[in-house]
Automatic annotation (TrEMBL), chain A:
SMART domains to which the protein is assigned, alphabetical: Sm
Gene3D superfamilies with a match to the protein in the record: 2.30.30.100
Name of the protein in question: U6 snRNA-associated Sm-like protein LSm6
The family this protein is said to belong to: Belongs to the snRNP Sm proteins family. SmF/LSm6 subfamily.
Sm domain residues: 16-86
GO BP terms: maturation of SSU-rRNA; mRNA splicing, via spliceosome; tRNA processing
Chief place of localization: cytoplasm
Pfam family, one: LSM
Biological source species: Cryoendolithus antarcticus
Record keywords, A-Z: Cytoplasm, mRNA processing, mRNA splicing, Nucleus, Ribonucleoprotein, RNA-binding, rRNA processing, Spliceosome, tRNA processing
CDD domains the UniProt entry points to: LSm6 (cd01726)
Signal peptide: none
Automatic annotation (TrEMBL), chain B:
Superkingdom of source: Eukaryota
Keyword Ribonucleoprotein: yes
Family named by the database record: Belongs to the snRNP Sm proteins family.
PANTHER family: U6 SNRNA-ASSOCIATED SM-LIKE PROTEIN LSM3
Protein name: LSM complex subunit LSM3
GO terms for cellular component: spliceosomal complex; U4/U6 x U5 tri-snRNP complex; U6 snRNP
Record-level GO BP terms: mRNA splicing, via spliceosome
Keyword terms of this UniProt record: mRNA processing, mRNA splicing, Nucleus, Ribonucleoprotein, RNA-binding, Spliceosome
Gene Ontology MF annotations: RNA binding
Compartment annotation: Nucleus
InterPro entries reported for this sequence: Lsm3, LSM_dom_sf, Sm, Sm-like_LSM3, Sm_dom_euk/arc
Function: Binds specifically to the 3'-terminal U-tract of U6 snRNA.
Gene transcribed to yield this protein: LSM3
Length: 86, 98
């Protein structure tokens, strides 16, 4: 019961949220905070608190570009969602 | 010694987000806080809560009031402190200054 069942429908089926997050490491992502501020950058890493490290980050306030960061650490409690850009 | 990682690897690799903060120790960092406040200062210490100890800090407070309503930029107030302890729960973002 305790062991995770093998995904029957192929290896890329990420059935839990952290599986999704580890799959999109290195990809360009959009991170929205509860304050409404949006960060777009390359996802460097995520931990269990949903703390996030981003590279080449752009900060958008009210849809307008406000700042650029080379690297950025975002504290997890502020995160509303993480979305993989396509 | 029993570490699987070599010391040089663990010093530079970013395996978890807080490694980014660790690599900024004794460097100048930019910190965004709740309540429209920003800090710039030298990072002396941090922990997993993002409690921070900063030195030679410049704090910028953005004030959105009637005076500046409709203006492009809000009013700002800056404060300087020699040393500041920041409680982690007010931290939003930490970025190494380039």
């Amino acid at each position: 019961m305790s062991a995770a069942p093998q995904a029957p429908n192929g290896a890329n089926d990420s059935r839990d949220p952290s599986g999704f997050l580890s799959e999109i490491i290195g990809a360009p992502v959009t991170v929205k905070l509860n304050s409404g501020v949006v960060y777009k950058g390359e996802l460097q890493s995520v931990d269990g608190y949903m703390n996030i490290a981003l590279e080449q980050t752009k900060e958008f306030v009210d849809g307008k570009l406000r700042r650029n960061y080379g690297d950025a650490f975002v504290r997890g409690n502020n995160v509303m969602y993480i979305s993989a850009d396509t | 010694m029993a570490d699987a990682e070599s010391p040089s690897e663990s010093a530079t690799n970013v395996n978890e987000p807080l490694d980014l903060v660790r690599l900024s120790l004794n460097e100048t960092v930019f910190v965004k806080l709740r309540g429209d406040r920003e800090l710039k200062g030298r990072l002396h210490a941090y922990d997993s809560h993002c409690n921070l100890v900063l030195g030679e800090v410049e704090e910028t407070i953005y004030i959105f009031d009637d005076e500046t309503e409709g203006a492009d930029e809000p009013r700002t107030v800056t404060k300087n402190s020699e040393m500041l302890f920041v409680r982690g729960d007010s931290v939003v973002l930490i970025s190494p200054q380039q």
